[in-house]
Write a structure and sequence with these properties.
The structure holds 2 protein chains of 2 kinds. Helix content of chain A is about 40%, strand content about 25%. Chain A has 8 helices and 12 strands.
């Protein structure tokens, strides 16, 4: 079955071009040119992944991202023309899993889309714990002190990667490779922002993390 | 207060002006003579000198003697205040000057008053004495005596009259036989008030014994157990029945001394109060002047630290108010200018950002389309196929150029921010080497890494994206200009600094080329084909990236021997970097073989160096 991809971009030429590329690679694209209608298009098309331009007329990409994230865990990849740190970080903080800076190569775009659509491995029943957080890997569920915590698939993968090897310190590059699936270092800010987001959900006090610890100068590791 | 004993007794110089003997004096009894007043003279002047000397010594001792550790600690604080507080300095100097002036005036007044008092008393004493003595002499002349007891009684009765002569101060007398006379009828020493011949100064006695006339001298008179009063002795020679006697009248000057003491204490008290008053006035005046100044300083400091809305308070219309209002005007115009500049910079930043966005979206479309065509080129006829290839490559080049342009305008707009965190420099270098491997193979070059192992480690505060960009640029440049010869990367560090040098052995650079290497759009050799299609902005961006890190990027070149670029970074972001631990070039300039040298020598004179940031003298101490 073809994966369905919703492309939210106000530039019709670019959207059409992206459509051509995606169709070439065996995806089924849907289009929406207006931020205000993006949520409706999302509901009607039920995509497996959303490609979202950060700058949209009406409701901007960040707001659209928030709306979609509020009702779905579907992977969101942002298309950004501004590579300024603040824009990228704002986009990621609003719930996007990844971003592709313009101008991008078609191959790059497809690689990112595939990485996010990676079918989850058939996971064996497995329960991991970090601090007071327990992770049911097969059931894709996280509990802290008996309360369920809702994580996006990416955040879940990040947590599982750390929890599987609590003795190992993960560099940002290693996490990019294991969690995002990028062989060559992309932007390590991706990791920083997602760790922040993960902490804000699972830590008692995100300022003093106990589950995902920072190892200064190296990267991150799971708490005890 | 001063005491009279300290003063040298002075023999009255006026002895020559002694009053004529008895005859010319009125013959009224001593009781009728004018009330004897005090008389004192130069002793008072001396007394003041003494008192000054003593208080001076006291003051010096008080100032100089370190009164324990407390004073030592205090002294430092006072010295600091002297340096930093205009008010403190002004008040202190005012007090010092006022003190000196008051002491001077006080001393002068005191001496004048003392002198006046003394002279008055002296004149009186002399007059009274001569009157009294002439009465006594007259009475002696009329005496008809035949035996000693009668003479003694007569003398005592006569002299009694002298005792009651004074009203102010008790006048005492002493009559003693001038020694060396052979006379059977003489009267023994007669005195009043416990006066003995011993207390009369010898100088005065010999003067009275030898000459007729009146002499005087100041002396001290013991009164009571250990009290001594200033006194004045006036002496004359009297004759009784052909026998000469010395007759002294002694005036106790204690009343005058008391008056003087009182006047002096009033003077000192008044001086002290005046000093306090002057100090207070100085404090008030300097406060009024200094307060606005220190206020202005505080406001200026706030302005300098960026609080541009800070203003001084304007009160009244005086000079201080003028200072405040002109200061505020200056602050206004400063704020206006700075805001204008900030607005301009902001405008430029948003312009860059907007252009970036507006250009990138169509470029993305073009690029994707070009790539689709490029991928399908094999199905085109040769003309279309070549066109598709050209389109693809030129779009790629266009994109690189645009990216570099946007990057450099971001630097120019001041929008570039350093995102530094501690990281391993080798991780970046390996990454760069891995990325440059395909190009190295195409150029036929070998990339070597020469790393000095040292105890300081390779972690440095850096923005990995920027350091990666700098090193990638240097390595790519070296490979492109390396003529297929090996390219070396040298790394070394010390406690504060890490340096990476990239050395090629290609065509090298001349002096002019070295100085222009960091210019925008400058190319080492315009005749060379632009094979890799660099934008010509690479080194300019690398320079800006280095500057952002507080580092130093330098170039060295020698035609035919290759070139070398060296990046020197401080280990801690924000700290200063030390001398570069890698030589420029590392290992000298003549090793065309590409062998790695482990010792560096200073670069020979025929080489050319250029620095783009800072003026760090190149050290010859390469550690590789």
């Amino acid at each position: 079955m073809k994966a369905r991809i919703l492309v939210v971009d106000d530039d019709e030429a670019l959207a059409e071009m992206i459509g051509i590329v995606l169709r070439n690679d065996g995806f089924e694209p849907f289009f929406c040119a207006d931020g205000a209608q993006a949520l409706a298009a999302f509901r009607s098309s039920k995509p497996d992944l959303v490609l979202l331009d950060l700058m949209l007329p009406g409701v901007d990409g960040i707001e659209v991202c928030r709306q979609i994230r509020a009702e779905s865990d579907v992977p969101i990849v942002m298309l950004t023309a501004k590579s300024d740190t603040s824009d990228v970080v704002r986009g990621l903080e609003s719930g996007a899993d990844d971003y592709v800076p313009k101008p991008f190569k078609p191959a790059e775009l497809v690689a990112r889309v595939r990485a996010r659509l990676r079918p989850g491995d058939q996971k064996a029943p497995e329960t991991l714990t970090i601090a007071d957080v327990s992770i049911d890997v097969a059931g894709h569920a996280v509990h802290r002190a008996g309360k369920k915590i809702s994580l996006t698939p990416l955040e879940f993968d990040l947590l599982v990667a750390l929890a599987r090897k609590p003795w190992q310190v993960f560099t940002r590059e290693l996490l990019l490779e294991q969690v995002w699936g990028y062989r060559h270092a992309a932007d390590t800010r991706l990791v920083n922002v997602h760790v922040q987001r993960l902490r804000s959900k699972i830590e008692q006090d995100p300022e003093a993390p106990e589950v995902v610890l920072t190892v200064r100068g190296v990267g991150y590791r799971a708490g005890q | 207060m001063t005491k009279l004993e300290e003063h040298k007794p002075q023999l009255g110089g006026g002895s020559r002006a002694a009053l004529p003997a008895a005859g010319s004096e009125p013959t009224d009894g001593p009781a009728d003579s004018p009330t004897p007043r005090l008389a004192r003279l130069p002793m008072i002047l001396g007394r003041i000198k003494g008192s000054l000397r003593r208080s001076g010594v006291l003051l010096l001792r008080w100032v100089l003697r370190p009164a324990g550790h407390w004073l030592d600690r205090r002294r430092r604080g006072v010295r600091r205040r002297w340096r930093t507080s205009l008010q403190f300095r002004t008040v202190l100097v005012t007090l010092l000057i006022a003190f000196i002036a008051l002491v001077g005036v006080g001393a002068y007044l005191s001496s004048q008053i003392a002198n006046g008092l003394f002279q008055e008393r002296l004149q009186q004493a002399k007059q009274e004495s001569s009157r009294g003595i002439s009465q006594v002499q007259e009475s002696f002349d009329n005496a008809q005596l035949s035996d000693v007891p009668a003479a003694s009684t007569y003398v005592r009765d006569t002299l009694k009259l002298l005792e009651v002569g004074g009203t102010d101060d008790t006048r005492r007398y002493l009559m003693v036989l001038v020694p060396g006379q052979n006379n059977s009828l003489f009267v023994a020493t007669v005195s009043s008030g416990g006066i003995t011949p011993a207390i009369i100064p010898d100088e005065l006695r010999s003067a009275v014994q030898g000459h007729s006339g009146q002499y005087w001298q100041s002396m001290s008179l013991s009164a009571g157990s250990n009290e001594e009063h200033p006194a004045l002795a006036v002496g004359s020679n009297v004759n009784l029945l052909g026998t000469h006697y010395e007759l002294y009248l002694i005036y106790d000057l204690n009343n005058a001394q008391a008056t003087l003491n009182y006047i002096q204490s009033v003077l000192w008290l008044g001086g002290g109060i005046l000093l306090l008053l002057i100090g207070g006035i100085a404090l008030y005046v300097t406060r009024n002047v200094v307060l606005p100044i220190s206020q202005a300083a505080a406001v200026a400091e706030k302005l300098a630290s960026g609080q541009l809305q800070e203003r001084m308070v304007v009160r009244g219309e005086d000079e201080v108010a003028r200072l405040a209002s002109s200061f505020n005007r200056m602050a206004n115009s400063l704020q206006e200018q700075i805001n204008q500049l900030a607005a301009l910079s902001h405008m430029q930043q948003s312009f860059v950002s907007d252009v970036s966005h507006e250009l990138r979206t169509p470029l993305t479309t073009v690029r994707m389309a070009a790539e689709v065509l490029f991928d399908a080129r094999d199905s085109f006829d040769p003309v279309n196929k070549r066109s598709a290839e050209l389109l693809y490559h030129q779009v790629e080049r266009f994109q690189a150029l645009l990216a570099d342009l946007l990057e450099i305008s971001r630097f120019d707009a001041g929008a570039a921010v350093l995102d530094a965190e501690p990281g391993d420099i080798y991780a970046v270098i390996h990454n760069v080497m891995e990325g440059a491997q395909p190009l190295a193979e195409r150029c036929g070059s070998v990339l070597n890494l020469a790393a000095a192992t040292d105890i300081y480690g390779s972690v440095v505060d850096m923005d990995p994206r920027r350091i990666d960009r700098i090193l990638r640029n240097l390595v790519v440049n070296a490979l492109e200009h390396g003529d297929g010869k090996p390219v070396e990367i040298f790394v070394a560090s010390d406690a504060d600094t890490i340096a990476v040098a990239v050395r090629d052995h290609g065509i090298g650079m001349s002096a002019g080329e070295v100085t222009r290497a960091f210019d925008r759009f400058w190319r080492a050799d315009p005749a060379r084909a632009r094979t890799t299609g660099g934008s010509g902005l690479g080194l300019a961006i690398a320079t800006e990236d280095t500057r952002l890190h507080g580092g130093l990027l330098e170039a060295w070149g020698k035609p035919g021997a290759g070139s070398c670029f060296r990046l020197t970074l401080p280990r801690r972001s924000g700290a200063a970097h030390g001398p570069s631990p890698v030589g420029l070039p590392p290992g000298g300039d003549d090793d065309a073989s590409g062998n790695l040298h482990l010792t560096g020598e200073p670069a020979p004179a025929a080489e050319f160096e250029a620095k783009v940031t800072g003026t760090d003298p190149l050290s010859g101490r390469a550690v590789l």
